[in-house]
């Protein structure tokens, strides 16, 4: 199904502080993000007729979006909570675009926050750690999520000759971006040897191959391109998106080294009428370093097996051919769990608006954001531009 | 606080025959009578063809390693009693893949290559009865005779 491109724009964004942010908690962070994004857009809260949220691990509600609407005194015509892990933000954005295109909503807010660092009880933290895997056929083996990803890393090494040094290069390039972002949680530059010398977690992955654990959240305000023209910020246009699911459990993956990002990417490129060669920068889901390599390959930025050399050559670092995770990603900016791909979208909006100061990219016309949830399970890809195309 | 326990699988209608098989020393897989595909984990219908005509058969219990990792710390202390352990994906001779862990492999600060843990290495099932009340399939490397 084809649709007009650039009919919907992001007109307001906000990030909360990230890292160790004990107050105001997951609910308060979500509300702060909403109010910040509305202020950025120059819209009153009563303009909101669509609200999409994500139930946090800390401070969950049975009906989360409704509870947030109630807290803000909103009565939206569309009020919905979603959860597809790291692809949640893009999945929500796709649905919001449909709602606006269909005339069902005029102003949609997407807001997600969690307090994984400060807000979990010990029991909740243990339960979250143990929640990865099929309840009968994977969880009995006691492996944390990082070990599930380590199985993928090992398979990629075996199949393509990828090395731990190349995984480490992802962490190094991402930290170099974060060093230029005052909001990032981890800003001290690191070298490949630092990653290799960090504590082994689940071989071949070390501590610095793993993303952070953070508090924080973000929000987006979307409206039609027509209405966006009258608002205070330069609109950033949604050009197309695609989603795909390959499996849920890693033991059921058709391939350990090629993911359904192939399909989500193909669908997003077709919807946006653009290909990987035209993308100026990308924000890729980097819960663990090997994932970035697989996404670079599956989204068509590199041939299969070549992403390790691509990253090791510095092409994704600041000043590279394809800057990746210009805010510092989940590895160095923040990872507050399922909401985190929103940070990739707000950073994309800032880059496309030209607001990034020291880390502003020289060329920022067309950007790709990819999120994935589970263990390379649920994928979503979106493409944004400075122009409606 | 009570002592940490391993996560015990709770069988469902679809999976009970598999867990009964484990207690009887058999690694069972589902076989579709319509298309012939072998399936694991057990489901209510054949995922490729959609048929509900599924039969149980006793698998060989043999397979090869599709991937592996060393878990330095499990999700709770009950998993760490014997130190780091090897998490594996086993591709069964019947075709499907399952997750498990290896028995009989010593893991130190680094895994000695002489232990023979490698993608493609042959393995066979080793059932383990847990005091928590489950019998789960683990795997051991099949040592090839010296060439």
Write the layout of secondary structure elements.
The complex is a heterodimer of chains A (389) and B (147).
Chain A: E1 8-15, H1 25-41, E2 50-53, H2 64-72, E3 78-81, H3 88-101, E4 107-115, H4 122-129, H5 145-160, H6 164-178, H7 192-197, E5 200-203, E6 205-206, E7 215-224, H8 225-228, E8 236-245, H9 261-272, E9 281-283, H10 289-298, H11 307-312, H12 329-333, H13 341-353, E10 366-373, E11 378-385
Parallel strand pairs in A: 2-3, 2-4, 9-10
Antiparallel strand pairs in A: 1-7, 1-8, 4-7, 5-6, 8-11, 10-11
Chain B: H1 16-23, E1 28-32, E2 38-39, E3 54-58, E4 62-71, E5 85-92, E6 97-103, E7 122-130, E8 134-141
Parallel strand pairs in B: 6-8
Antiparallel strand pairs in B: 1-2, 1-3, 4-5, 4-7, 5-6, 7-8
Instruction: Give a count of the beta strands of chain A, DSSP E runs of length 2 or more.
Output: 11
Q: Please compute the radius of gyration of chain A using only Cα atoms.
A: 19 Å
Number of helices of chain A: 13
Instruction: Kindly report the average pLDDT value of chain B.
Output: 93
Largest sheet data of chain B: 5 strands, mixed, barrel
Shape of chain B: globular
The CATH homologous superfamily of the largest domain in chain A: Thiolase/Chalcone synthase
């Amino acid at each position: 199904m084809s649709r007009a491109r650039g009919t919907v724009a992001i007109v307001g964004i906000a990030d909360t502080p990230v890292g160790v942010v004990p107050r105001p908690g997951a609910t308060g962070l979500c509300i702060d993000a909403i109010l910040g994004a509305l202020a950025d857009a120059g819209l009153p809260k009563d303009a909101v007729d669509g609200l999409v949220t994500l139930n946090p691990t800390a401070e969950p509600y049975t009906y989360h979006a409704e509870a947030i609407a109630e807290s803000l005194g909103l009565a939206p015509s569309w009020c919905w909570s979603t959860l597809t892990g790291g692809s949640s933000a893009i999945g929500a954005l796709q649905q919001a675009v449909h709602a606006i295109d269909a005339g069902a909503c005029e102003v949609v807010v997407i807001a997600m926050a969690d307090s994984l660092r400060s807000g979990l009880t010990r029991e909740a933290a243990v339960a979250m750690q143990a929640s990865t895997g099929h309840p009968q056929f994977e969880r009995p083996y006691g492996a944390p999520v990082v070990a599930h990803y380590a199985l993928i890393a090992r398979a990629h090494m075996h199949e393509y000759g990828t090395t731990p040094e190349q995984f480490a290069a992802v962490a190094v390039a991402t930290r170099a971006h974060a060093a230029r972002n005052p909001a990032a949680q981890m800003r001290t530059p690191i070298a490949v040897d630092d990653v290799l010398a960090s504590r082994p977690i689940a071989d071949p992955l070390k501590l610095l191959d793993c993303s952070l654990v953070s508090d924080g959240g973000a929000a987006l305000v979307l409206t039609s391109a027509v209405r966006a023209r009258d608002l205070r910020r330069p609109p950033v246009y949604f050009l197309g998106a695609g989603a795909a699911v390959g499996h849920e459990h890693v033991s059921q993956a058709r391939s350990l080294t090629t993911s359904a990002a192939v399909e989500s990417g193909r669908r997003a490129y077709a919807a946006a009428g653009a290909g990987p060669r035209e993308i100026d920068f990308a924000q890729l889901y980097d819960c663990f370093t090997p994932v970035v390599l697989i996404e670079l390959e599956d989204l068509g930025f590199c041939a299969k097996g070549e992403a390790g050399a691509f990253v090791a050559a510095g092409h994704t670092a600041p000043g590279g051919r394809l800057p990746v995770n210009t805010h510092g990603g989940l590895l160095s900016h923040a990872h507050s769990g399922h909401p985190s791909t929103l940070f990739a979208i707000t950073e994309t909006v800032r880059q496309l608006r030209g607001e990034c100061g020291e880390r502003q990219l020289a060329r920022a016309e067309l950007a790709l954001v990819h999120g994935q949830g589970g263990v390379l399970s649920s994928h979503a890809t979106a493409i944004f531009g400075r122009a409606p195309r | 606080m009570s002592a940490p326990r391993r996560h015990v699988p709770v069988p469902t209608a679809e999976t009970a025959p598999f867990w009964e098989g484990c207690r009887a020393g058999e690694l069972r897989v589902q076989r579709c009578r319509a298309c012939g595909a072998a399936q694991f984990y057990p489901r209510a219908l054949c995922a490729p063809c959609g048929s509900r005509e599924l039969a149980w058969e006793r698998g060989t219990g043999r397979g090869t390693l599709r991937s592996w990792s060393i878990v330095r710390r499990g999700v709770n202390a009950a998993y760490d009693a014997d130190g780091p352990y090897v998490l594996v994906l086993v591709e069964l001779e019947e075709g499907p893949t399952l997750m498990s862990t290896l028995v009989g492999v010593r893991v130190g600060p680094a895994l000695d290559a002489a232990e023979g843990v490698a993608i493609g290495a042959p393995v066979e099932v080793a059932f383990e009865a847990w005091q928590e009340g489950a019998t789960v399939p683990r795997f051991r490397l099949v040592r090839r005779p010296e060439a």
